[in-house]
Amino acid sequence: MSLVARDVQFGYGGRPVLKGVTLGVEQAEILALCGPNGAGKSTLLHVLGGLRQPAAGEVSLDGSPLSAFRPAARAARIAVVPQSLETAFDITVEDLVALGRLHRLPLRDRLLLQPLRGADRTAVEEALRELGLGALRRRQIGQLSGGERARALLATALAQGADHLLLDEPTAHLDPAYRQEILEILRRLAASGKRILIVLHDLTLAGLYADRVALLEGGQVKALGSAEEVLREDVLCSVFHAPLRVLRHPDGGRPVVLPAPTPQH
Questions:
Q1: What is the residue extent of each domain of the chain?
Q2: For 81-113, what is each residue's pLDDT tens digit?
């Protein structure tokens, strides 16, 4: 594993959020981070992406401390995809995806806003094609649907050229068709060798698409393993403090998690 957290601790204003987390992302896999609200999922993603520094413990990349990597070198290996995009001005899909190449450009080209050339232009075109955004390339981001915007954010990360993709709830607020589309794309990218870490609230989606699941509670990893090993009724009911049922999907037998409502009298 090249991206690894070892005994990572982190907090906000003296309030501990991560309490000794150890895990790593393997090649050609989707690792889902699941857990209750406030469990530390997004914080852990930000620490693994180098956006926040751990208070204790260490995140390493290829055996070296992540903190030793310059921002451009880190961006060449790790892409962090936020849940939503907030911009002070509207830009086109193509221009947004092109931002994924900024870390690779000489400072002069960035300052003079030079058009992309060579491998940088090729990377943008390939990302637009991979995410099916060719017909939307001139569309303003503000004119996109939620699903289209999610694809544009993922295309930006793909153009970045990183081999680690860290995504914070990319399926939030999407309808079932778009959720499936995004996760199918991620599964295809994982099959090509990408290391993918994804924060998911939907346990059934984690069961259907993740190779491994890390279940967080109170800033600690309560369970880590295959979806079948982690998404068990006893484990889930203990972590979420709610009655949950785990069934098997008719196509393939992967775990499907459903609420178990209290019987009506």
A1: 1-77+163-265, 87-161
A2: 988 776 656 889 998 998 888 776 654 454 334
The residue assigned the tokens 């637009």 is 128
Cβ distance 99 to 123 under 8 Å?
no
Task: Please enumerate in sequence order all residues whose Cβ is within 8 A of that of 16, keeping only pairs 6 or more positions apart, or say none.
Answer: 9, 10, 219
DSSP 72-97: HHHHTTEEEE-SS---SS--BHHHHH
Structure token pair of residue 256? 């499907």
Predicted model pTM = 0.90
Is residue 187 within 8 Å of residue 237, measured between CB atoms? no
The CATH label, of 3.90.470.10, 3.20.10.10, 3.40.50.300, 3.20.20.70, for the domain at 1-77+163-265 is: 3.40.50.300
Average pLDDT, the chain: 90
